[in-house]
UniProtKB/TrEMBL annotation:
Coiled-coil intervals, chain numbering: 65-99
Entry superkingdom: Eukaryota
Native source organism of the sequence: Microthlaspi erraticum
Protein name per Swiss-Prot or TrEMBL: Uncharacterized protein
Disordered: region residues: 33-52
Amino acid sequence: MGRSKVIPDAGNYGYEEISNFIALAGISDFVEERKASESDTEDSSSDEESEIDIYESFKEVRDALVETGKENLELKKENARLEEKVGELQKALQAEKDLNMDNLNIMLEKMEAVKRADDITKEYFLEKENSRSLQAELDQHRKQLKMLTGTKELDKILSLGRVGKSNLGLGYSTGSGSTGKTVTFVSGGIAQDVVQAETRSSA
């Protein structure tokens, strides 16, 4: 008597699982054929029971291998799914790292811009202070120049109506051309007494 066997789809199992299944199926066929050939002979009932036990044992082993193959296949699928998930997480992590790096670069650029602004501000105030100092010095030079210009104008006014060259004036002193007389400046009261004394002596 034959038994119908279900051959698993090769696409659902690995090569090793299919090979084990085929080997067990072959053993099962051998046992069944032996049982069929010896069924017509007069064997003892104990031999038949022994063969049935062997067949059942092989069947259990075969079923266990098939179940193990299914479990291995599920584990492989789960492993592939986990690997895909890990790949997605790695991509997300890399994207996050790139984003953080971009943010860090932007922050560094902002800090550099703030530093440049501080340097420019310090330079501005320094130049402004230098400008004030230069402006004060320029004002001082202008005052001195104005004073010198005023002196020359005064000399020009004093020289009006004078005949010939004269070295008298602001900034000049008498030279060898003087008459030798000494001019003495006195107060008004003393000058009046001198005039009265000269008048008496003349009389």
